[in-house]
Design a protein that fits this description.
335 residues, alpha/beta, Rossmann fold, Dihydrodipicolinate Reductase, domain 2, 2 domains, 6-stranded mixed sheet, 41% helix, binds NADP nicotinamide-adenine-dinucleotide phosphate
Length: 335
């Protein structure tokens, strides 16, 4: 049995999902030979530390750690001081400066700890530097959850489609925009009505600009371009148009001609824009779903769809990344 000491940084929607999923899957992981021990959980209020594993039942009912923290350590200090093998980084995304996640990931990688994250910001701002830091320290950085949530895309390309040349990837990478466009098409309602509906349902933020202006999708395009296409792309290289100018009339006309209008991110073209997609196309999914068509030289086009967000769903992608790190290490040891 292999003991893996995990530190979790960020205890919001995804952080709670990670604690829950680790707890639910304890036995399954043990059966695989992995004893995942959550030795610390940190948020902006402090840290819960336990060498023997943080008691999930004790903290899952708490929105923040304010009432249960056993240490006042935060952020980088906690990452460096606590004895762990792997850091799960799930603090809020900032794609301008990448903080606080960028500092957390640098601290983890430079002290020889693997990093698994759902946080786009640090990767958009500093992918190649973080990758080099991981390589220099002999550890891995995994980030499946940053693009398409639980939808397997990065691991599918890196592992399952290995041997193929990837010619391009295009798809729907933002569930909020897809929900709004779907509702505008179904009900013939204007953008502002569909947006308020999404806000009432908790699908859109009070300030939705990050999603509807295409910023979130463009961040994902940068991550895919840098990680899967070996490009050295910045956010400013992406040509971005959001969905605020899409009208119910345009959607109705498109539908009459057999098309949907979807916010499509395209790599390596580095574009994000409302795009006509044939109604029968496998990427023309509805509601909050995400989708991606992967164009390859040997396998033709592979399409995946799935939930792009959600507490447990995102935690599932994080768990998959963690398991894949230890499986890869086992294969390395054989060769
Ligand atoms: N939610 C999803 O479905 C989803 C899906 C895919 C990717 N993601 C990404 O995953 C990350 C987490 O998302 P989320 O929805 O869980 O966000 P969230 O609910 O806002 O949670 C973020 C957590 O990080 C904490 N935090 C903020 N600054 C911190 C610091 N300096 N040190 C330690 N903790 C700090 C926050 O505390 P306070 O709230 O008290 O400040 C909160 O506990 C984001 O980068 C997001 O873009 C989310």
């Amino acid at each position: 049995m292999r003991d893996i000491k995990v530190s979790l940084v960020g205890y919001g929607i995804v952080g709670h999902g990670v604690v829950d999923v680790f707890n639910r899957k304890k036995k399954m992981l043990r059966d695989m030979g992995l004893n995942l021990k959550l030795v610390s959980v940190t948020d902006h209020t402090g840290t819960v530390v336990s060498e023997n594993g943080v008691d999930a039942e004790k903290i899952l009912g708490e929105r923040t750690l304010a009432n249960v923290a056993t240490s006042s350590m935060k952020g980088k200090e906690a990452i460096s001081a606590i004895d762990s093998d792997l850091v799960v980084e799930v603090t809020p995304t900032n794609i301008v400066h990448g903080q606080p996640g960028l500092g957390h990931m640098e601290a983890a990688l430079s002290s020889g700890k693997h990093v698994v994250t759902s946080n786009k910001g640090p990767l958009v701002v500093s992918y190649s530097r973080l990758k080099k830091l991981a390589e220099d320290n002999g550890v891995m950085m995994k980030f499946e959850a940053t693009v398409g949530g639980t939808m397997p895309l990065i691991s599918l390309v890196e592992r399952t489609l290995v041997g193929n040349t990837i010619l391009g990837i295009r798809g729907i990478f933002n569930g909020t925009c897809n929900y709004i466009l779907t509702r505008m098409t179904e009900e013939g309602i204007p953008y502002t009505h569909a947006l308020s509906e999404a806000q009432d349902l908790g699908i859109a933020e009070a300030d939705p600009s990050y999603d509807v202006e295409g910023v979130d999708t463009a961040g994902k395009v940068v991550i895919l371009a840098n990680s899967l296409f070996n490009m050295n792309t910045k956010y400013s290289d992406v040509d971005v148009t959001g969905i605020t100018g899409v009208t119910p009339e345009a959607l109705a006309l498109a539908k009459k001609r057999g098309y949907a209008i979807k916010l499509i991110g395209n790599v390596p073209a580095l574009t994000v824009r409302p795009t006509l997609v044939p109604l029968g196309s496998p990427i023309a999914v509805s509601g909050t779903l995400n989708s991606a068509a992967i164009y390859t030289d040997l396998s033709g086009t592979i399409t995946v769809t799935g939930l792009g967000a959600g507490s447990i769903e995102t935690a599932s992608a994080i768990l998959t990344d963690i398991v894949s790190i230890y499986r890869t290490k086992r294969i390395d040891a054989i060769f």
